[in-house]
Design goal:
Blueprint (H helix, E strand, L loop, with lengths): L1 E3 L11 E2 L5 E4 L11 H5 L5 H4 L27 E3 L23 E7 L14 E6 L4 E13 L5 E13 L2 E9 L2 E12 L5 E13 L2 E12 L2 E26 L2 E28 L5 E23 L2 E27 L3 E22 L13 E24 L4 E18 L3 E8 L2 E7 L4 E11 L31 E12 L6 E12 L2 E5 L8 E5 L3 E7 L1
Parallel strand pairs: 4-6
Antiparallel strand pairs: 1-24, 2-3, 3-5, 5-6, 7-8, 8-9, 9-12, 10-11, 11-13, 12-13, 13-14, 14-15, 15-16, 16-17, 17-18, 18-19, 19-20, 19-21, 21-22, 22-23, 23-24, 24-27, 25-26
Length: 549
């Protein structure tokens, strides 16, 4: 059972519990806490972890949900701004929470039920941030900070945002640069099969980054029936990581050998995203909406390992890993109501994802391989491209059975082709039918029961198809790709009970789940006679069950 509790010496204004189980928090509720951003406001809402993904087994191993999903789907980010879903992956609603000033908020809704009017489906709860409406306004917010790193260095950071509206045009602009300094001191101990001390590793690691993030969101209301939004984001990050290791080998409890190593690992990361959406309301109340997203991210990291002997350093490993990821998404649907209490949304989504990778591994063997391998002997030179073309055809039926019960049924058919070229070549077609039933019953205004039954198909990670790097593993320079992976599939059965105490004293939630799994994914042994290697592979069927307390 997850227990959330929030108390204050003064409650400015308690939250309102609506008949449709939506909980509303007006801006006055947060005044006593003096919040700077929307994120600060959400921290004060009891049980907010439920709406932000906690208290559920969704998004765990074997799930198609999560921030790294390809495409959009009906679920995903459970944060709405003024009732709409922001057309973005990196620039989605949850990423805006620390950038929107608190004074721009009119009220916050925690939507506990389901509805055909929602831009997102399938979440336990949905957060809707409703901003103040003024036909001519502009407000600015800024934050300046100074971090003191462990080495005594002072690193400045800051945020600036502008929010405004001019007639039918609304806009939000944000610039952010925050230091990311991290020091880790680690110690490992290894024992042999007889339990005798064999090796110790003393590790100090420093990571220093200073990312820049620029965001621009625009909305325009052409008429009461037509609205459009356009979103932009760019992120740049130069990341340097240095690691010092002292590896001590033991024989009969005495140090027999000691090796000192130093790693340097600079990385250059850049990404951009463009997204937009358009919605039209018909006279009969039905809606047509279309959104698109185009994004690209690029990451180049180079690891060099040196053996240290006094003042002499000798490079014995060079590992370069390059990734370029591109995604193009279009999603369109038509929603109509009938019989006063039911609605249907039907549509299609097309998503193309392309991953280009390149990996070069050089080792000290006495043979020179040129700059491409850091002057060391070429061991691995792997390049690859993985592309997925995926179509989703969906129909969602929402039925408000009465004022206390809702039932939402989803029928989704997925048709995809995954092709791979480069060091390995392969192409495969996949078809999946993924139904879902979501039932909710408000036993009392404070006590809600939720039950879901769903066929889930986990997305395959493109990185599992091609050779890659696990920089956290000192024992393995690189891991192999597996071109024959199959998607992990599961039938998921879940039940939730949620109770909200009066006067916002807290929330109690329980989540019981049972998952019947096929084609489980895990690490498998693909070692050769000369090298120990692992890769991702399917290991068969299984079950997962339990409860969150």
């Amino acid at each position: 059972m997850i227990f959330f509790c929030a108390f204050g010496e003064l409650i400015a204004q308690p939250a309102d519990q609506n008949e449709d189980s939506t909980v509303t928090y007006p801006a006055e509720y947060f005044a006593q806490f003096q919040p700077y951003s929307v994120n600060d406001m959400l921290q004060r809402i009891p049980g907010i972890n439920l709406a932000r993904g906690g208290g559920s087994s969704r998004g765990g191993p074997g799930s198609s949900q999560g921030g790294n999903r390809r495409g959009l789907g009906a679920g995903g980010d459970q944060v709405l701004i003024n009732g709409r879903r922001i057309a973005g992956k990196e620039n989605e609603g949850s990423s805006q929470l620390s950038r929107i000033p608190a004074r721009e908020v009119d009220y916050i809704e925690i939507i506990r039920g389901t509805s055909g009017d929602l831009d997102v489906r399938g979440g336990t709860q949905v957060i809707n941030i409703v901003l103040t409406q003024d036909q001519a306004r502009t407000s600015y917010a800024y934050e300046v900070n100074l971090d003191r790193a462990l080495n005594g260095e002072f690193i400045p950071g800051g945020k600036f945002s502008a929010t405004g509206q001019r007639g039918a045009l609304s806009y939000f602009l944000s610039a952010e640069r925050e230091p990311r300094y991290d020091f880790r001191d680690g110690f490992e101990t290894a024992f042999d099969a007889d339990g005798v001390l064999a090796e110790t590793v003393n590790r100090d690691s420093i990571e220093d980054a200073w990312p820049i993030n620029l965001v621009a969101n625009f909305g325009y209301e052409f008429s009461s029936s037509d609205t459009a939004n356009f979103n932009l984001q760019w992120t740049g990050n130069d990341n340097d990581q240095d690691t010092d290791r002292v590896i001590s080998s033991f024989q009969q409890g005495i140090v027999s050998n000691r090796v000192i190593e130093r790693d340097t690992q600079p990385a250059d990361e850049d990404s951009w995203e463009v997204g937009g959406d358009y919605m039209h309301f018909f006279p009969n109340g039905s809606r047509w909406k279309t959104l698109f997203i185009i994004n690209e991210s690029e990451n180049l990291s180079v690891r060099s390992r040196y053996k240290v002997d006094g003042s002499l350093e000798t490079r014995d490993l060079y590992l370069s890993n390059f990734e370029n990821n591109k995604e193009r998404i279009v999603r369109s649907s038509y929603i109509f109501d009938f019989s006063g209490s039911q609605s249907i949304e039907a549509g299609i989504e097309r998503a193309q994802t392309i991953l280009d990778t390149s990996l070069q591994l050089g080792l000290l063997t006495g043979v020179e391989g040129g700059d491409r391998f850091g002057g060391l002997a070429p061991i691995t030179d792997s390049v690859g491209t993985v592309e997925e073309m995926r179509y989703e055809y969906f129909a969602i039926h929402n039925w408000s059975i009465n004022s206390r019960m809702t039932l939402e049924t989803t029928f989704l058919f997925e048709d995809s082709t995954i092709s791979q070229t480069g060091s390995k070549a392969n192409s495969r077609d996949f078809n999946f039918f993924r139904p879902k039933i979501d039932y909710r019953f408000d036993i009392t205004p404070s006590f809600q029961f939720r039950a879901t039954v769903e066929k889930d198909v986990a997305q395959l990670s493109f990185r599992d198809f091609t050779a890659g790097v696990d920089f956290a593993d000192d024992e393995q320079n690189a891991f192999e790709g597996n071109a024959e992976l199959r998607q992990e599939q599961s039938w998921r059965y879940e039940a939730n009970f949620e109770y909200r105490f009066s006067e916002d004293a807290g929330v109690v939630n329980t989540n019981l789940y049972y998952h019947d799994l096929d084609d489980l994914l895990d690490n498998v042994d693909v070692s050769t006679s000369g090298e120990i290697l692992s890769a991702r592979g399917n290991i068969g069927s299984g079950e997962r069950y339990g409860f969150n307390l």
